[in-house]
Amino acid sequence: MALRFIAKDPNTDGANCPTVWVDVERQEIVMQGWKVDEETRADCLTSGPIPNNEEVVRLPVRMLAAIREACDVAERSAVQ
To answer: Which range of residues forms the domain containing residue 68?
Structure first.
C-alpha cells in the first residue's frame, strides 16, 4: 500500500499533527487526527457503536481544502 500524501495541518509544527493521505490502490482516504474526548465519543455513540477496528478523530476545519483534495484524488483514481 502506497499512500499519496495530501497535506498536514498548516497551523502546527509539522510533526505529530493532523494529516491527510489517499490510498489510490484501495480508493480510501486516510486521516490522522486528534483523539476525541469521552464526551465527544459518547455523542458519537448515540448514532451507533464504534467497532473495535475503527476510531473517531478530530480534524480542524482549516484542513477542509486538504480533505477536498483527497476526495478529488480518490474519486479520480476510481475512474481510471
So the answer is: 3-79
The closest alpha carbon to 70, from 25, 34, 21, belongs to 21
Q: Taking 80 as the threshold, does the pLDDT of residue 1 lie above it? A: no
User: What's the structural domain count of the chain?
Assistant: 1
Rounded distance between C-alpha atoms, residue 21 and residue 80, angstroms: 19
**Whole-prediction pTM value?**
0.82
Using the Cα atoms of residue 79, residue 66, residue 68 and residue 20 in order, give the sign of their dihedral: positive
Residue in the structure block whose three cell numbers are 509539522: 14
- SS3 sequence, 2-69? CEEEEEECCCCCCCCCCEEEEECCCCEEEEECEECCHHHHHHHHCCCCCCCCCCCEECCHHHHHHHHH
